[in-house]
Fold:
Amino acid sequence: MKNKKKLSGNYFKDFGTAVAKGDMGVKLSLLVMGAGYFARKQIINGLIMIALEIVFIMTCVFYAAPNLAKFGTLGTVQFEQVFDPLTMTSKVNDYDNSFLILLNSIIALFIIAVFILVYIGNIKAVYRLQVRKEAGKHINTFREDIRALFNEKFHITLLTLPCLGIILMNIIPILVLVAVAFTNYDQQHMPPSALFTWVGWKNFKQLFTNSTTVTFGYSFGKILIWTLEWALLATLTTFIGGILMAQFINNKKTKLPKLWRTLFMVAIAVPQFVTLLLVRNFFADSGIVNTICSNIGLTDFLKSIGLVNSNLTYIPFLTNPTWAKVMIVLINIWVGVPYQMLIATGVLMNIPVDQLESARIDGANSFQIFWKITMPYVLFITGPSLITDFVKNINNFNVIYLLTQDVYVTSDQLLANSNAKEVDLLVTWLFRLTNEYYNYKIASVIGILVFIICAAFTLITFTQTIKGNREEDFR
Amino acid sequence: MKKTVGSIVRHLVLAFLAVIWLVPILWLVVTSFSGYKGINTAHFFPETWSLNNYKALFFEPDSVVQYGAWFKNTLIIAIFTCIVSTSFVLMVSYTMSCLRFKGRKGLMSFGIILNMFPGVLSMIAVYFVMKSIGLTNSHLGMIIVYSAGAGLGYLITKGFMDTISTSLREAAWLEGASEATIFFKIIIPLSQPIIVYTIINSFLVPWGDFVLAKLMLNSGIATDWTIAIGLFNMLNKSLVNKYFSIFCAGGVIVSIPISALFVLMQKFYVEGVTGGSVKG
Amino acid sequence: MKKKVLAAVLATSMVAASLVGCGNEAGGDTSADNSTAATDNSAATTDNSAAATDNSAAADNSAAADNSASSDDPVANLIAATTDTVKLTVWASEEDQTLTTQLLEDFKAAYPDVTFDITLGSESESTAKDTILTDVEAAADVFAFADDQINELVQAGALQPVAATYTYDVAGANAAGAVEAATVNGTLYAYPMTADNGYFMFYDASVFSEDDVKSLEKMVEVAEAAGKKIAMDVSNGWYIYAFFQGAGYELTLNDDGSNNCTWNAAGATDVAQAIMDLFGSNVLVDMGDEEMATAIAEGTVVAAVNGTWRAETASDAWGENYAATKLPTFNVAGKDCQMSSYSGYKLIGVNPYSANVGWSMLLAEFLTNEAAQTARFEARGLGPANTAAAASDAVQADPAISALAAQAAYATPQRVGGNFWAPAETLGQILADGSAGSDLQGVLDTAVEGIMAPIE
Structure:
């Protein structure tokens, strides 16, 4: 933290020095951005900067200003339309669309922020040029500048396009949705026909207060717990399952290992959404599995030992909270283990053979070898990716949504009152809130909380990888 | 004697597991040949067999089934998504792995954290961003949506590149090669397994996504859809009883290119993913 | 060639307009006759000409720019004002595509002077709302939807009020219930298309006699003896309403979109108990629509509460024993109550954000006029909302439609806010699977609190 302060201090200090000590060219750059370059005869750089400045000013006037002017209220003019029955045309007033104002304002703010950085960078750059000139050092020609972009500044060349993409598809949408968490954007306030506006922390408060009519707090707690349980179970079961299966198939005593591996791989080849939708119908209350179970008497047996409610004629695979949760985890094993097996196969092939041999000579049986040598090795190799999987499972939309949507009906009335279900993950809940109930405000708050939870887990693991110097160790 | 028993048990267990894994797939395949169009709940194997479902997929397009068009759309989107995504991932991974510049670690952490934000939520904003540049209901729009953020998924590829020895790069550097030359001539050829891994993964995205595609392709015209939306739509309440077996046939067909890809690239895939996940 | 015709039309309607300008109120007819198109439709316009004439003075001013003529025949005005290709998007359900394609061709033929570019998309009537509300501006110009979505669509400003009609009198030609279902707060917002989206009882006449189907308890008894099941999707707010409304407990919509509900009032626990008893028998079973279709086809279910969309399944399965009737009575604490139901209609709406509102309205009228509704019944067996079309013998003879007509006396239009569905679904679920426990009053209280949750 201290470090950062110092850094930002330096950042502005450098800028100050540049302005104070700069010559005419540098000072003129405060106004006309290309001036400093012209002074050093870098005509093309200068022209680019001037063009940039003009484009920016145009953007401000025609795009940023009109939107930002309404940013405080998110629009005041409601959609109105007058239909003239005689000409059969309708006149629409010049209405405000709160969502577009929000979106455009955020893009505008983003552009302005980037421009300020460029602006400061520009002043510093022309000042550096001045210093170089005064010291009698070489000043790059435009061609040399271009060449630098493929050498010492290659990172800029490489990162430009991906960063643009990320800004467009990730950063701006995220900022918009974070902003929505502080508005009353819901079904009563849906643009373009209605306006929404800022409400401060109200939505966050709503999520953490409880009454029988507003049960978001209750649901959030329940769903959060199940989300974490699910992520842990799903990650561990597929991970261990994958290793066991890989170990089993790769064992020398297994004949035709390739054939077996291919058999399991068939399950991956069918797209996930097809298999999941299929399995959902497979295990439906009056589906094929239930027919078979009831024919062979399994349903009655389960009833007699109390696993199935006695007034049911079927096994509620995906319709009873407990059954559904177990089935979801089992089906996820079915879906996920072949993938993990593939990865584990690769890892197991690289196990140092000498260790295994020496253990065998020492008289260890295959179980001991597995737990004492194989497992630690595999864990060491794939440990970090376990956390990635864990976070992916927190956001595992497909499995839960495809298996339970339209099938599972909650019997917890408090959950129902906030449109949640026992088997929901936070992401499927927020998807339902937006997609079926247009409750963007609460969904955004949930989204932010999911984000914080995931980010916390990730940071814990990756700080070691990134902050330390582990990346250099293996070279 | 004991050995053979052990071996038999071992193979029986494997066979049992294989059956579990294959039963739903088998159901998919046999249902796709069913003469009954709805969900068969009484019999595992259809009572009447027919090829009509496949015929309906390819030769009798109606407003619900436009399989040919879907396949074409998805293929086009997948190919371009794959090219753009893979380039982006490689560019970012190389930068983060091999180049050293100010703010690198900050950018890396930022990227990882950004990737944590639940995509289903920001979808609606993505939609309006794309709409304001007029790219909803278009292939180009879908390609951008699927590939623009690909740079964030650099972690595994970077992990793989971290294992490429620095001495190679240093040698090239001494011979006067630019960073660009090193990237294209040394790192890319050496990263073949991880490139294949990235290609497969990005190629598969458009085949499996229905949520984002359904939002972006909202014209209601079936010929604009991708396979995932089309198949998903067949399970709509009002359609499922007429289209379930066609859905199964569609599911079987879509698995063919994907399995082919997997079989062809299996070796690289395993190498890539294990190489990359060594470092997480 | 086309241009010449258009010019002629323009010229004639200009003349007509100048006549009108002189105070000839009846001039409308002349202009309509002169305009080559729309002649066959214009006769029906008279109903509304009153509304149109009121504005005729303003018409001269509002006539947009150079090429539009003003007369008191709006359709002629519209044709005259249309110079470019008219681009329209229409959404109809997947099952309705063939018919709609045909109707669109007829529509184009009815206005030969205008070039249309009409795209037909498929969007199920039952989920149209979800797609439309996500982005109203990107939705189709003309779309079909089920009447339960009308409140939310109106609230989101996604429906153009039917301020005037041009080719037929929408309010007069359709059944009163259908018009009521298309009306919100006194304004007509949509064009009724079918009147068959409600539910009633299908049964296999080889199992039940006509007397049996009068009471649900009797039906359960008979089905139990036959070893068969009766299906109803009670874990669904739409269907569970039949019990509570039938027993006299109310559910109404407030102005702000929240609900008012008395399902926990004194005595309501008897209704809940009745539902639990009925479903506890395991003869009457809670079953979703798709499963029900399969179960009917396989013969395990011999009677079902469902709608016309399952008529085909049922008649295929039961053959000549296929029968349908109004919903039966059920017994609440010793008293027989007639089950109520939601009457359901399919409507066609016009998007107010359409670039061609006028043409969209004409198209919506075309897709819902008597001829179209008759065609829809003939092609798909859907019950017409149009009273003339519904009066035909063929319609009257259809068992499903006559069952709906019998049920109509006990049906109410669907006026309910969004907070109803999830709590009601859960209420149905726990009553049907018997997990409600002994505190029925508590269960009902919680459900009602959820249903009546305030809307901010």
